[in-house]
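Re: [help] complex structure
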Amino acid sequence: MKPGESVASSRDVKLHALILAGGGGTRLWPLSRRSKPKQFLREFSGEPLITDTATRLHPVVPAARTWVVAGMSHEAGVREALPHLGAHLVREPMARNTAPAIALGVSAIFLEDPDAVVAVLPSDHHIGKPDRFRAVLAAAGQVAAERGMLVTLGIVPDRPATGYGYIEFGATLGRVLAAEAFDVKRFVEKPTAAKAVELLKSGNYLWNAGVFVFRARDLLEHLDKHLPELGKGLADWRAAAPDAREEIAFRVFEAAPSISFDYAVMEKADKVAVVPASDVDWDDIGSFRSLARVNPDDRGGSATAKDVVSIDAHGNLVHAPGKTVALVGVSDLIVVDTGDALIILPRARAEDVKQVVDELARRKRDDAL
Amino acid sequence: MKPGESVASSRDVKLHALILAGGGGTRLWPLSRRSKPKQFLREFSGEPLITDTATRLHPVVPAARTWVVAGMSHEAGVREALPHLGAHLVREPMARNTAPAIALGVSAIFLEDPDAVVAVLPSDHHIGKPDRFRAVLAAAGQVAAERGMLVTLGIVPDRPATGYGYIEFGATLGRVLAAEAFDVKRFVEKPTAAKAVELLKSGNYLWNAGVFVFRARDLLEHLDKHLPELGKGLADWRAAAPDAREEIAFRVFEAAPSISFDYAVMEKADKVAVVPASDVDWDDIGSFRSLARVNPDDRGGSATAKDVVSIDAHGNLVHAPGKTVALVGVSDLIVVDTGDALIILPRARAEDVKQVVDELARRKRDDAL
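Output below.
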């Protein structure tokens, strides 16, 4: 039995996907821009990352149960990437971080399917082994459906990363389909480097990848408890006539705190489980280091270009489509060229793209951001 | 008295300029290409270098006494850069290094002005102080005219360069106008690094910049002596009817050795003088290091771009017109972007552009060369 097929046997779980496309990231500048955040980039697979995010879930989550929450400015991009979305594109009236966005999306799903089990997913991650990912997601859906728990997916760490939150897992809840579920003891915020080494060593921690699975009705109950004003506002939203909802959503968001779902709900809820997502080849494409996945060359680097001539040059990540690139005596650099902009920095400083973006903002180079 | 004016007093010397535009250099790839060698680049002054080469000589050499020897493939480029050249563009039938090219050019000048004094000049050098250069050239012209000597200009070395030939100078021939002339003891080929240090220390050596001044008739006599077959062929060429000359030139060049003027004539001639060209701010733009002259920035580098954001980055020479460039944590790099091609290499390895060009040739990337 293939992992994808195992789900068909869990007849009662109708998994919906709620994809969050609110990001405005510039961590991959100049590839990503304010107007073209990471989820729309085609550079990693040929398709926009958000398209990959949706299609890799089939058939566990078919297109008919796929939803996206996105800000107004990204609506056109989302429609282009997912042309069959129809009414399942939920408009975020304004940016208020993930808690209000997820709450609104789940409210919309609940209206259509009160028994829905919802998988919340970032729109811009890479999953190298989608078969295995679907199996893990199906297992998480099963736990959520049967136990009424809020379930997170936990990525098995392979290095002491400081860029992610960690999840300490406790007692096993047993095997579920092709995976295993555990109680969550606690969530740990992004650690220092020393702390991260400690967490990795202990073997009791997983990375929080921002993937959550729960029954829609359970989430709405948690909302009433932990964010009662937002909960009440969205209850009004659901009760209102469809053509009144846009205005209500606007007022609800205006009044809502800008707060993350992890912090506002997951860390406060009881009955939280985690399903380790082992061997899914996950990458949040949080920096240009992920270019190493794309067109790897025989010099420990990668080359997306018309031609790359390397002389005494190794480990360079080159992204310059259509261009002839010559590298002499330089190693472990990231070189990204988009025609109008060029960035060069060591792989070890991939995160410092942020400083470049900050400086461009300071220079009021809105045209380049 | 300004240097430029000193010449007017030497009434009898009618200096002609013979500019050699035969280069096909790719030392500045991807800026220079086979079809656009260095002499046509506008990146260093806004004008093609060959245009600068001609105009900086005015009024010592007016446009009416300016000549160019160029291969067929560069004729259009020369005409564009020097639109008033007319019949003073001498076509090199094929590449045979500098001796045949200069001999042909001097033959053409001799036909128009048997008393001509000719200054031979490379077409693609930078001279930061043209006033001073004109004064030195006028002095060299005076020595050539009065003494019938072959005169070279010698650049006063400021470092133990291994990329140039050296000239050992001997006894003074006295002050001439605003300069001083010396006997040449010998020419030294491009030295090793150790040898170059020795030459620099001794204080008796100057760089051979490829600038030669002589009476046309003296050169033709030297030719008969040192390259008799070429000398005879060009005598026939001069004696022939104008419309027969193209074919004769072709045959003469076909039979001629491919040999440098330095080696074939200057090193063998007696009566050779040198005029030190001190303080002319000479640069042969032999590598991308010369970019440091263009748009110097406050970080020890240079920036020709729409915008350069440097974070922990110093001494970088950036040439990427119209582009936003971000450099993080990289120093002393040369970064040259031409839209279709990009090169990145340390300043210390500027000469290794040659290796890139060789590799592109090996890959049969004629489109990029």
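Residues 3-283 of chain A form a domain with the Spore Coat Polysaccharide Biosynthesis Protein SpsA; Chain A fold (CATH 3.90.550.10).
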